Amino acid sequence: MANHTPVVSDAEADAESKPSGGWAHSLELYARQLDARGASGNTKRAYRADLRHFALWAGERGLEPASVDYSQLRRYAAAISSDGAAKSTIGRKLAAVRSFFDHLVAVDEVPQNPAELLPSPKRESRLPRTLSLDEVETLLDRIPATDPLDARDRAMFELTYSCGLRCEEIVSLDLDSVDFDGEVLRVTGKGNKTRVVPIGEPAQRWLERYLAKARRALADPSRGNGAAKALFLSRRGRRLSPSDVRRRLARRVEDAAIAGGVSPHALRHSFATHLLEGGADLRSIQELLGHASVSTTQIYTRVDPSRLRSQYRNAHPRA
User: What pLDDT does 310 receive?
Assistant: First the structure.
């Protein structure tokens, strides 16, 4: 039987003391670099947990950052896999390690990245489900908007679908994010990058209705500036959290009797898919979604080769 090298579990890593020595120093440098490049809170938490997990594994074997080599990283990947981690988890952890060593190379902490050629396990692309146009209309039209919370939910989910927003982008919106005169929304997305997205007429109408009465009813003047300027407020006048948005959407999905699996990201995915089906080009959808690469958009919208060939034949003068 092959020897199995135990790996520190995520739960055990949380209970263990923090990495020490060279690991503590290097991880602190990397954390500062993530802050400097405007990484989101979720990204920083994920990288911190994954890299602490790796640092504890390496520290148990007497390794410092500068002494880690390719073969040891292969053993780490094998240990994670043997412990039953999903391919997506393995890929995420290895991506964190690869990015960490990229940074150490950049700041001359190590001469080269030992993870540069480390393969990540292939995994199936699991995208959120796409709602049909009828399902989107049913979902939104079933929100009654008879009280402040209903009016807020209707405005919030109309805006989510109209602008293709991520959950974190929804809750970070401020009052001045909306430009009714220009009919656009100013969105701060991943990497602290800002994009300007058109707002559809239904979303504008429901936003105006929410701001006219409902938000005033939810606002608490005693709250700090963070809540005072937030576009969407909770029952107690606080800025909403991503879990608040997911919970409210789950309730609305249930009210509309739509099959489960509908997340805020499913509305974003539906936004992109419906634009593509309506004839929008990938580059425009890329900008609207805030993707850094059009290849991400192509995967996201499930563009199949037959559609690309059809567009090629219709558009290229010598097709």
Answer: 73
The residue assigned the tokens 């950052």 is 65
Question: Residue 300 catalytic?
Answer: yes
The full set of domain ranges for the chain reads 10-106, 133-314
**Domain 10-106: CATH architecture, name and number where available:** Orthogonal Bundle (1.10)
CATH superfamily of 133-314: Intergrase catalytic core (1.10.443.10)
Active site residue 268: yes
Q: Is 190 a known active-site residue?
A: yes
Mean pLDDT per 10-residue interval, the chain, length 319 residues: 42 55 88 86 88 92 92 91 85 91 91 87 68 94 93 97 96 96 94 93 97 92 72 94 94 87 90 89 92 81 67 75
Selected catalytic residue, list 25, 75, 142, 190: 190
Q: Which residue has the tokens 């292969």?
A: 74
Given the residues 195, 209, 246, 265, the one annotated as active site: 265
Instruction: Quote the pTM value.
Output: 0.63
Instruction: Return d(Cα 279, Cα 294) in angstroms, integer.
Output: 16
Catalytic residue among 53, 268, 269, 274: 268
Q: What is the pLDDT at residue 150? A: 96
Pick the catalytic residue from 166, 248, 252, 274. Answer: 166
DSSP of 66-132, one letter per residue?
GG--HHHHHHHHHHHHHTT--HHHHHHHHHHHHHHHHHHHHTTSSSS-TTTTPPPPP----PPPPPP
Is 75 part of the annotated catalytic residue set? no
Question: How far apart, in whole angstroms, are the C-alpha atoms of residue 157 and residue 164?
Answer: 10
